[in-house]
Design goal:
The protein is of the alpha/beta class and 392 residues long. 37% of the residues lie in helices and 18% in strands. It contains 13 helices and 15 strands. Bound molecules: pyridoxal-5'-phosphate.
């Protein structure tokens, strides 16, 4: 990284992120280049936002065209592309309606409000799950049952009750006459690529139906093709009442959405919620281009196939190496749980030109692009395997 960039950050940028000493300048597909001209293979493009890879051409083209025509109009007007985008999402999910915002946390804020607004009087409690992650705004972080994200912030927004992920009995015990909803990631992402135990999501669906609660799936990380279906709930066979989306929704452009059925949607009534930039023309065109690219190029199937190839390449490590505990794969959500700290693995991979992530201290997390080539997959896995072998 150039000393000038380093100086700019240390003087002028709030130091709330742990940043690598690398300045990225350009990206294309699954590759990025830093300001020294060094190339990296990216198995974690855009923290999961760049599911189509860096700068996917159809998204670039749609955004370039739109930005010259109309950048922003408030949501007090109509414009066709927002309606078209909502239709495409509706047709690929459970046929409801969309509220648009700009991020995952915002989508979850909308969901929290919707749950409370929809519930009969006096009901306000929402059950969420330990190890879950829903974002950093106050509602979303209160919903996030990880003490490390609450430290020093208290008091949190009241009304969230936390259950262990996978424990239906615990959920049953938490439900009372004030419970309004259940909010869950169908597959925990930041929590370490944790798959739901057999029957868990169906059990939540049954409890929600029995007690007239809204079942909300946070598909911010799992949605939009990440698992090889449009949405993870379709893989898992349980349909929510409300679903939140962001990250890869707009092919790398900022955008978020809440989807719900047309029966529930009117509870988010005029005047109760809004997002100034939500569903803006650029996000809408990028969102549409994202869906079209995935379909034209058959990328849902590609995500499944790539996931299986990762499983074949990395799965044997659990037997071969003592430090590898388990591999978990759901399409292009890949978690390799180690029995040691994963940070040195991330650093060693980066030194060899491969970008990966570590979450929960010991889970090496890959969220690769659907456009990853077989050669890139091979190259990256070789680096990762070499690094793991060198550590032991
Ligand atoms: C990343 C993430 C969020 C937060 O999204 P932001 O766009 O950073 O606000 C919420 N939920 C899940 C499951 C996520 O992975």
């Amino acid at each position: 990284m150039s000393p000038a960039t380093e100086e700019l950050f240390s003087r002028y940028v709030v130091p709330n992120y742990g940043r690598f000493p690398v300045s990225i300048e350009r990206g294309e597909g699954s590759q990025v280049w830093d300001d020294q001209g060094r190339r990296y293979l990216d198995f974690f493009p855009g923290w999961g936002c760049n599911l189509l890879g860096h700068c996917p051409p159809p998204v670039v083209e749609a955004v370039q065209e739109q930005v010259a025509q109309l950048i922003h109009v408030p949501n007090t007007w109509h414009f066709e592309s927002q309606g078209q985008w909502a239709k495409l999402l509706s047709e690929r999910s459970f046929g409801g309606q969309a509220f648009f915002c700009n991020s995952g946390a915002e989508a979850n804020e909308a969901a929290i409000k919707l749950v409370r607004l929809h519930a009969p009087k006096k009901r306000y409690k929402i059950i969420t799950f330990q190890g879950g992650f829903h974002g950093r705004t106050f509602g979303a972080v209160s919903a996030t049952a990880q003490p490390k994200y609450h430290e020093g912030l208290g008091p949190m927004l009241p009304g969230f009750l936390y259950a262990p992920f996978g424990d239906l009995d615990a959920v049953r015990e938490l439900i009372d006459e004030e419970t309004a909803g259940i909010l869950v990631e169908p597959i925990q992402g930041e929590g370490g690529i944790r798959l739901p135990p057999e029957g868990f999501l169906q059990g939540l669906r049954d409890l929600a139906d029995q007690h007239e609660l809204l079942l909300v799936f946070d598909e911010v990380q799992t949605g939009c093709g990440r698992t090889g279906e449009w949405f993870a709930y379709q893989n898992l066979g349980v349909t929510p009442d409300v679903m939140t989306l962001a990250k890869s929704l707009c092919g790398g452009i900022a955008g978020g959405a809440l989807l719900t059925t047309s029966e529930i949607a009117p509870s988010l009534r005029p005047g109760m919620h809004a997002a100034t930039f939500g569903g803006n023309p650029i996000a809408a065109r990028a969102g549409i281009a994202t869906i079209e690219m995935i379909e034209k190029q058959g990328l849902l199937q590609r995500a499944k196939d790539l996931g299986e190839t990762f499983r074949k390449k990395l799965g044997p490590l659990a037997n071969e190496l003592d430090l590898v505990k388990e591999l978990r794969v759901a399409g292009l959500m890949i978690g390799l749980e180690l029995v040691v700290d994963g940070a040195p693995v991330v650093t060693a991979c980066m030194e060899k030109g491969l970008l990966v992530n570590c979450t929960q201290g010991n889970v090496v997390r890959l969220l690769p692009a659907m456009t990853l080539t077989n050669k890139e997959l091979q190259e990256g896995c070789e680096i990762l395997i070499d690094v793991l072998r060198s550590i032991g």
